[in-house]
Design goal:
Layout: H1 6-16, H2 27-35, E1 45-49, H3 55-63, E2 68-73, H4 76-88, E3 95-99, E4 112-118, H5 126-136, E5 137-150, H6 157-166, H7 173-182, E6 185-192, H8 196-216, H9 221-240, E7 244-253
Parallel strand pairs: 1-2, 1-4, 2-3, 4-5
Antiparallel strand pairs: 5-7, 6-7
Length: 260
């Protein structure tokens, strides 16, 4: 499989950076996951790993009114957009956007009460991500993350090929639960994101933005081909969402500390 062209990434980022969020999720799901963090510190130190443009970061600000949130992403334009949002909303004392490496966040060990990550941990491998999060969390701290999972076997070849491009090691819920257990965490709970969490703030805005960009690039065959390719993702979800899901997992580092 050949690597995407530079033009692909140019159009890809023009599309994705203009969206409210870069993956499935919504405020209601964030609220439900936080409800599982029953003994969270009253003024928690929160780390949002792979924050993108920070839609869920702002949800955390609203849902945790005493939290201080560090938001890390490797894509500088996304962090720049989050910084603009933080400045516009006067949240400079509560949100610290940083360009950084998810695999090596520049944070002190055992300094975080809640690590939050929506659809991003797979980028560094789920087992490695769990080790990183375990080291950052205080004993008793919480990890809340979403991950793509297969709902059933034998997906259509087009669906399997699409996920293999981005997440070839994607498993099923029991696989993630086993990784959580092996990573030194105790599972608190998990739930499947509802279909509106895919559409309201992600795929519906994506489809509208694709149409805008098709108008912008009406005479550019290469850009239009990229947009047609990107438009296949929400269409695939319409047809085949029974084969896969996003699952929200909430786990807790053991109170006794120690390594995974």
């Amino acid at each position: 499989m050949s690597e995407p062209s530079p033009r692909f990434w140019e159009v890809f980022f023009e599309l994705y950076e203009g969206l409210p969020r870069q993956g499935p999720g919504n405020r209601g799901c964030a609220d439900e996951a936080l409800g599982l963090c029953r003994d969270l510190a009253s003024s928690p130190a929160v780390l949002d790993l792979g924050c993108g443009v920070g839609c869920q970061t702002i949800h955390l600000v609203e849902l945790l009114p005493s939290a201080v949130i560090t938001a890390i992403d490797s894509h500088a334009p996304s962090i720049a957009r989050l910084r603009e949002t933080v400045a516009e909303r006067g949240l400079g004392e509560r949100v610290r956007p940083m360009v950084g490496d998810m695999a090596k966040p520049e944070m002190l060990p055992e300094s975080i009460d809640l690590v939050w990550s929506e659809g991003a941990l797979y980028n560094i491998g789920i087992e490695n991500a769990l080790r990183v999060c375990h080291a950052l969390l205080r004993p008793g701290g919480y990890l809340a993350f979403t991950d793509a999972v297969w709902r059933k076997g034998d997906p259509p070849p087009k669906v399997k090929a699409s996920f293999d491009l981005d997440y070839p090691t994607m498993g099923r819920i029991p696989d993630v639960l086993a990784a959580i257990d092996n990573g030194g965490f105790v599972l608190v709970g998990h739930f499947t994101l509802p279909d509106e969490a895919w559409w309201d703030d992600f795929y519906s805005p994506m489809e509208r933005r694709i149409e805008v960009l098709r108008g912008k690039y009406a005479g550019d065959a290469e850009a239009l081909a990229v947009l047609n390719q990107l438009a296949q993702e929400p269409e695939m979800h319409r047809r085949h969402s029974d084969y896969y899901a996003y699952e929200f997992f909430v786990a807790r580092r053991a109170m006794g500390g120690g390594g995974p």
